[in-house]
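Sat 14:20. Reprocessing the chain from the morning session after the first attempt stalled halfway. Input below, unchanged.
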Amino acid sequence: MKMGLGRLGFGRLIAVVAVAFACVCMWGCGYEEWGERVFADHFGSASIVGFIDDSLVIVADSKEWTQETPDYAIGGRGHQRLRVFNYRIQEDGPRWTDTLDNFVDEFDYVKGQVSDSVIWGAHGDELISFWKLGEKPVVKNISIKTEGCSRKFAVKSMRTWNDGLIWVSGIVFYGQRTNDLLNAEGDTCQYAVLDTVAGTLTFKRLDENLKWIQKCDDVRAWGDDVYCLKFDKEERTSSLFINDSLGYVLENNYYWTVGAVLQFQGNILLLERDVCMLENGKIRCFASASSNGISFKNKDKNEYITY
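Finished this time. Tokens:
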């Protein structure tokens, strides 16, 4: 028997198609709205992000958030907070604190320390923020350039550099360390320079005048001089080079086979957990940071400072 669509059947088909189209436009029939992002009542574990001078430390933390979807819950972090503590003398609490109303997945304002009182952040390659203590973060649009190289890298750290510029070191996505990247061959960019006035981030390869820093764990400039920190795991020593000349050697008891972590944080030399400064031509280590929580030992007074 021959089947066909009568006027009534055809009308029903049109109605079904219309309902299906409406459901597709609304992302499915019975679609439930996602819930609000709900923050935890307390902040998570704090970490040291920098030092201001020989007595103040910058500490960062954030809150965890969760959000219900129709199928499962998702989460992340936000409400980033900075606090400043005295790590030489025990006090009741922070000297200063400020909290942002933000989500880290939209913009991470706390990546590391640039200078004595400035913390840098970023979102992607072309948005960089600078959070000066006592103020709110300032976001800058950045143009990306390359000079003599083509393979860029993810920014890992920023340091004060010559002529008001900022030295930028990084890592590639397969996990090379910074010093490995400085030794990268081919057309891989080895470092970058950020010009905050011009709004440019220029990726480069080391020229002959800078190839000596390939041995360094961390670098920065003071005035016209370039400083380099290097850990020698065979000799168990921390060395400070100035313009490729060995300036200071500090013996220490670091027994990590992969080497200790040496870095500049503001005007402080952080040698693994030892907090040190250059004073009167010598490296003086006057405090040590705990690996757990915000805790320091004042070496001058043999006292523990804990927050």
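The longest strand covers residues 73-86.
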